[in-house]
Each structure stands twice: as C-alpha cells, then as structure tokens.
Amino acid sequence: MATRSKSSKAWLSEHVNDHYVHRAQKDGYRARAAYKLLEINEKDQLIKEGTVLADLGSAPGSWSQVAAKLAGGSGEVFALDILPMDPLPGVSFIQGDFREETVLAEFESLLGNRDLDLVICDMAPNMSGNAVTDQARSFYLCELALDFARSRLKNGGSFLVKVFQGAGYQEYLAAMRETFATVQTRKPDASRGRSSEIYLLGKNKR
C-alpha cells in the first residue's frame, strides 16, 4: 500500500479535525464551502427570496444547497460543473466542461431568456502542483466566468468569484472594476487561513 506524503497527511489531519467539516456533516451540507457562502451572504445579502442565479463549478453542491434554500420557491438556481452532482430540490443542473462552447450553449439554453440577479463561482482547476500553470488555469476559468456574468447578469446584478492571489490578480481585478460599480474582497472565516484564495464581489453591474 502506498504511503501518504507529509502534505497529504497534514491535509487529512486538518480535514478530520476541521470545525466546518463537522458542522457541514451535522447541518446536512455537502461540503464545508457552504459556510463561505453563508457568511458572505450574511454580510452582503446577495441571495434572498426570489433571486435567480447561476452557480458555476457547483459540484458537490453545497453552494447550490445554500442558494436554493435562500432563494426559496420563487427563486431559481442553475448549476454547472464538469463533475457529476447529485440532484438538489430547486436546482437545475448541467454536467459539462464550462470551457467548451457546446456546454456553454446548452447552459444558455437552460437559462432561456432570463436575466440573472447573481452569478456565483467557486471553480478551481485540477491542480497540477506547478504553481505557475495552476494560477494561469485558475484565472482562465475566472475570465470565462466574468464573460458569462457580463452577458447574463441584469443591470445592477452581482458576481461572486473565487480567485487566488498571485500572477494575474491585479489585471483581473481591473477587469471586474470595468464591469461593476464596486468590487470588494471577502475572506470568510471558513476559508482556510493558509490558502491564497479570496473572493471578489462585484456589485451593481453597469
């Protein structure tokens, strides 16, 4: 049997002892990431009864769970991921690669002529271990998500996206500032302190 590396052992230990992992199990959420969205939403009130939104990179579904609960019966949640996701009440899901035109077209077709109130994106690429490559892949996904938000958000809509600080960050921040009246950073408590991830929140699409 293969031995675990020191880093994977450290991750496993951290995960097993993680307060948010235990809380997610207790509260019925599919992943600890649910608390990131809950905390941001508590501060910014992005999702409320009747909100129509898209969740990009949705699997395993914890953000969609939170969104569907907050948007209620009069809201709508449309989710997309390259990985499979078990069905959720109030969530319409398509499995496919967001980078492919055919998948994007299928998702656009699902949305119909709806203008979205909100786009949320917790996507990250499969990590190769090469920091430069991983950072470039991450911002490519973020750029695609921003393009989608530009085309589908209603005027005044909001966009919440996970980014990793490093190469490309300032350029991406500038691109968001061209699209939204305000752009703010969020680092929820459930985001591990050692992680370079932060969330950018664009409000009031022009």
Automatic annotation (TrEMBL):
Domain of life: Bacteria
Keyword Methyltransferase found: yes
GO MF assignments: rRNA (uridine-2'-O-)-methyltransferase activity
Any one GO CC term of the record: cytoplasm
EC nos: 2.1.1.166
Class of this enzyme: transferase
Binding site for S-adenosyl-L-methionine: 61, 63, 81, 97, 122
Active site per the UniProt annotation: 162 (proton acceptor)
Keyword field contains Coiled coil: no
InterPro entries: RNA_methyltr_RlmE, RNA_MeTrfase_FtsJ_dom, rRNA-MeTfrase_E, SAM-dependent_MTases_sf
Compartment(s) where it occurs, according to its Swiss-Prot or TrEMBL record: Cytoplasm
Swiss-Prot/TrEMBL catalytic activity: uridine(2552) in 23S rRNA + S-adenosyl-L-methionine = 2'-O-methyluridine(2552) in 23S rRNA + S-adenosyl-L-homocysteine + H(+)
Major location category of this protein: cytoplasm
Keyword terms of this UniProt record: Cytoplasm, Methyltransferase, rRNA processing, S-adenosyl-L-methionine, Transferase
Residue stretches making up the Ribosomal RNA methyltransferase FtsJ domain: 29-205
Family under the similarity heading: Belongs to the class I-like SAM-binding methyltransferase superfamily. RNA methyltransferase RlmE family.
Role of this protein: Specifically methylates the uridine in position 2552 of 23S rRNA at the 2'-O position of the ribose in the fully assembled 50S ribosomal subunit.
PANTHER family: RIBOSOMAL RNA METHYLTRANSFERASE (PTHR10920), RRNA METHYLTRANSFERASE 2, MITOCHONDRIAL (PTHR10920:SF18)
Protein name listed in UniProt: Ribosomal RNA large subunit methyltransferase E
